[in-house]
Structure prediction request, 115 residues.
Amino acid sequence: MPVNPPVLGVEVREWARETNLFLRRNLGRLFFKVDSDNPSENGIFLWDDDGGYPVVSHDDTFKEIVVRQSAPTANTGGTGDKAGLIAWDTSYIYICTGDYDGTTAIWKRVALATW
Prediction:
């Protein structure tokens, strides 16, 4: 429930102090996903700073939102690549099928064709 600011005097200063305190305690949680976030309420939209992608809560889990990645330069990918990432360029669509470990071929691609 929103809290409207009081109109006059000391009440305004106290309201401002409480608002400032709330924001200092919670601002990061308003935008960034942290380990203690609970995905049980569907539709929570957060940025996963560790993974570098947005997530949305659905069915008691946080699901990645597909965001265009840079096309991989090798099928083994690079640091931070994980299963489910999608990339494309003018010739291919790339899908990451595993998490980056430095040696395993985790990116698959399919050629694009006109129709």
Remarks:
- The mean pLDDT is 76.
